Amino acid sequence: MKIILNGQEQNLADPQNLNQLIQQHIKDKRRVVAEVNGTIIKSTQWESLSIQEGDTVELISFVGGG
Question: Domain coordinates of the chain in residue numbers?
Fold first, then answer.
């Protein structure tokens, strides 16, 4: 299944939900915002949202600094 993840085409071997995708790509889930097809998805919905063929997913993680 092909999706666009952070502007790059990715092939996913198995269907996944958004939470599984985030776990594979982000170390600290507490500091991430997920957007699927232009809609920001609340963290309470990550487990129930299935990633579909052709979806565009943006994962934005926040990094502290000073």
Answer: 2-61
Return the amino acid letter for 57: V
Please tell me the distance from the alpha carbon of residue 4 to that of residue 64, in angstroms, as a whole number.
Answer: 27
The domain over range 2-61 is classified in CATH as 3.10.20.30: yes
| pTM metric for this prediction | 0.89
Rounded Cα distance between 36 and 57, Å, is 5
5-23 tens-digit pLDDT: 999 999 998 889 999 999 9
For every residue of the chain, DSSP letters joined together read: -EEEETTEEEE-SS--BHHHHHHHH-S-GGGEEEEETTEEE-GGGTTT-B--TT-EEEEEE-----
